[in-house]
Amino acid sequence: MPILESPEVAELETCSTSELPDFTTESYKDAYSRINAIVIEGEQEAHDNYIAIGTLIPDQLEELQKLARMELKHMKGFTACGRNLGVKADMPFAKEFFGGLHGNFQKALSEGKLTTCFLIQAILIEAFAISAYHVYIRVADPFARKITEGVVQDEYLHLNYGQEWLKANLDTCKDELMKANKENLPLIRSMLDQVAKDAESLQMDKEELMEEFMIAYQDSLTEIGLDNREIARMALAAVI
Length: 240
Known about the structure:
Elements: H1 26-56, H2 61-84, H3 91-97, H4 99-110, H5 114-137, H6 142-157, H7 161-168, H8 170-201, H9 206-224, H10 228-235
Helix pairs in contact: 1-2, 1-3, 1-5, 1-8, 2-6, 4-5, 5-6, 5-7, 5-8, 5-9, 7-8, 7-9, 8-9
């Protein structure tokens, strides 16, 4: 599910072989066990969230199930990336890593807050994922790079249901969107801080990850129909 449409997907740059990390070291594999688990869990969360959202809008369930199946395919691809390096993903770490967003999504779901559910899944988690994939592709091992490039192409080729729903309902959902953003956007910053050391071991810079995320996040808000002042107010929640 895309954050925005991009004509540059096929032109993603990668580092030269001499600039890539040594994928065989124990320090790399240790960090990779957590990073790989995060992307696997992120795709699993996305799968589960789209299925759950379908219970709130049953007339859209079939299409949401299609999106969920795509996320499951991505999860299997990233699982194969770990096997290729002989690394076991640290799934307990990843589940704890997503704990804040997961808990907030489940609370919103139980209260029937569709806007909040879409904000968490279709804006925050999707922007977090696609920005991380863009940064990772440049330093990934050849097998993982191929898998990740395919995932990014999928993300851009399919309609972001949440983004389109928020755009169509912006007049009635803006207040909830602003409130949900204030509660959930700070979690992204803390998540990036938590994984910064492991990302650095994979030659992924934390500030670049945050920059890519904020670009994707703000572009998505623009697509939804928010003006520059509203987007600035929402983005401010990341630093307060």
